[in-house]
């Protein structure tokens, strides 16, 4: 079977022209900038900390619930610093309600999706960082739709706060709980919207009331291999988990599966990931979609294992195999279970820790590679 990309799309890294910016939100600003913004609308600067406590600590955005603020200024504060950024259009559930996918409409009508997944020991939200995606990976529904625009830090954080609020209020089966993990594996290439994504990460890890007070170790930022941005992330001093979506160990195949590989080759991407692990002491995750008769051959498992082990066996890496999830019009399908097991065996034989990802949410098109923001 040919592995040539049947629908090559141009690679887009910058914001498409003609797209307006979302309104400024509290989450776009650090605490000092929030104070300035509050003073700019004629209110005392200390109100910024109170408003931040409501949003990031109490997870409240309704002025009626902000009872420690004078009634006469609540609406003014919320309108000035907490504009409405995302509106739920449709919600679907799976896995007995423990997986919830939400379709959001942004201020300009663009559509994105997020997926909240509750497990016995954690709750994870998969968030979008762009409306659409410009990376053009042919096996991914999001990539086939092209890029509409980058999302703002505020729009990203609104998805996270919604998930945290749903958990705190017991909306997900299992009773009230806490959102513990965030993965940037929704729509978009996070590293192509670097500044907004890092802004969102900072809001997540900042202690309350400046941020959500989450652990950086529980935040995963994925990339198809934008090497300069991986290097930039290495210097941020925020020990998030880096996930490199590799999908092939050889340039010939990866050029077709992940078109950015024509710019940043396999060895460059893996080298940058290794340097991230070496600097941060955080294990990198290698994401690998298992596609029948395309990239699931045993010899490719050996090649991948040899490549990763060439950087040492000090536990710097973990391979996460992803059974290919079906997308409309795709010419490909998931690997046979026997081939998947052999792939795992070959990697483990070379000392590479390997797991197969749970395909939760597949029936609601909420699994990896299925997010297409279809309003139907």
UniProtKB/TrEMBL annotation:
Metal-binding found in the keyword field: yes
Family: Belongs to the radical SAM superfamily. RlmN family.
GO molecular function, one term: rRNA binding
GO biological process terms held by the UniProt record: rRNA base methylation; tRNA methylation
Region (Disordered): 1-23
Note: Reaction proceeds by a ping-pong mechanism involving intermediate methylation of a conserved cysteine residue.
Function: Specifically methylates position 2 of adenine 2503 in 23S rRNA and position 2 of adenine 37 in tRNAs.
Organism of origin: Mumia zhuanghuii
Cofactor: [4Fe-4S] cluster
Protein residues bound to [4Fe-4S] cluster: 133, 137, 140
Name of the protein in question: Probable dual-specificity RNA methyltransferase RlmN
Catalytic residues in the record: 113 (proton acceptor), 368 (s-methylcysteine intermediate)
Keywords from the UniProt entry: 4Fe-4S, Cytoplasm, Disulfide bond, Iron, Iron-sulfur, Metal-binding, Methyltransferase, rRNA processing, S-adenosyl-L-methionine, Transferase, tRNA processing
Note accompanying the cofactor annotation: Binds 1 [4Fe-4S] cluster. The cluster is coordinated with 3 cysteines and an exchangeable S-adenosyl-L-methionine.
CDD domains in UniProt: Radical_SAM
Catalytic reaction equation(s): adenosine(2503) in 23S rRNA + 2 reduced [2Fe-2S]-[ferredoxin] + 2 S-adenosyl-L-methionine = 2-methyladenosine(2503) in 23S rRNA + 5'-deoxyadenosine + L-methionine + 2 oxidized [2Fe-2S]-[ferredoxin] + S-adenosyl-L-homocysteine; adenosine(37) in tRNA + 2 reduced [2Fe-2S]-[ferredoxin] + 2 S-adenosyl-L-methionine = 2-methyladenosine(37) in tRNA + 5'-deoxyadenosine + L-methionine + 2 oxidized [2Fe-2S]-[ferredoxin] + S-adenosyl-L-homocysteine
Domain Radical SAM core, residue spans: 119-363
Positions annotated to bind S-adenosyl-L-methionine: 188-189, 222, 245-247, 325
EC identifiers of the protein: 2.1.1.192
HAMAP family assigned: RNA_methyltr_RlmN
Location in the cell: Cytoplasm
């Amino acid at each position: 079977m040919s592995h040539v990309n049947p629908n090559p799309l141009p690679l887009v890294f910058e914001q498409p022209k003609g797209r307006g910016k979302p309104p400024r939100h509290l989450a776009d600003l650090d605490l000092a900038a929030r104070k300035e913004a509050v003073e700019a609308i004629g209110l005392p600067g200390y109100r910024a900390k109170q408003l931040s406590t409501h949003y990031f600590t109490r997870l409240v955005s309704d002025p009626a619930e902000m009872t420690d603020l004078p009634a006469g200024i609540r609406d003014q504060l919320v309108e000035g610093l907490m504009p409405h950024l995302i509106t739920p259009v449709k919600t679907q559930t799976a896995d007995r309600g423990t997986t919830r996918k939400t379709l959001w409409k942004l201020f300009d009508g663009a559509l994105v999706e997020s997926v909240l997944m509750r497990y016995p020991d954690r709750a994870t939200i998969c968030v979008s960082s762009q409306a659409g995606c410009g990376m053009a990976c042919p096996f991914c529904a999001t990539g086939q739709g092209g890029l509409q625009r980058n999302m703002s830090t505020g729009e990203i954080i609104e998805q996270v706060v919604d998930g945290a609020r749903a958990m705190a209020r017991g909306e997900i089966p299992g009773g009230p709980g806490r959102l513990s993990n965030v993965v940037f594996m929704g729509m978009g290439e996070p590293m192509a919207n670097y500044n907004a994504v890092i802004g969102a990460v900072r809001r997540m890890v900042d202690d309350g009331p400046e941020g959500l007070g989450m652990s950086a170790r529980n935040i995963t930022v994925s990339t198809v291999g934008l090497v300069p941005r991986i290097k930039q992330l290495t210097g941020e001093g925020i020990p998030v988990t880096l996930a490199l979506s590799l999908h092939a160990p050889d340039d010939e195949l990866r050029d077709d599966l992940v078109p950015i590989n024509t710019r940043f080759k396999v060895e460059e991407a893996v080298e940058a990931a290794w340097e991230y692990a070496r600097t941060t002491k955080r294990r990198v995750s290698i994401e690998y979609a298992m596609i029948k008769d395309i990239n699931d051959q045993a010899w490719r498992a050996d090649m991948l294992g040899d490549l990763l082990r060439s950087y040492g066996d000090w536990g710097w890496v973990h391979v996460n195999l992803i059974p290919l999830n079906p997308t409309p019009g795709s010419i490909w399908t998931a690997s046979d279970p026997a081939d998947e097991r052999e792939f795992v065996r070959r990697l483990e034989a070379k000392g590479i820790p390997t797991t197969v990802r749970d395909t939760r949410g597949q029936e609601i098109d909420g699994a990896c590679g299925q997010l297409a923001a279809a309003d139907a």
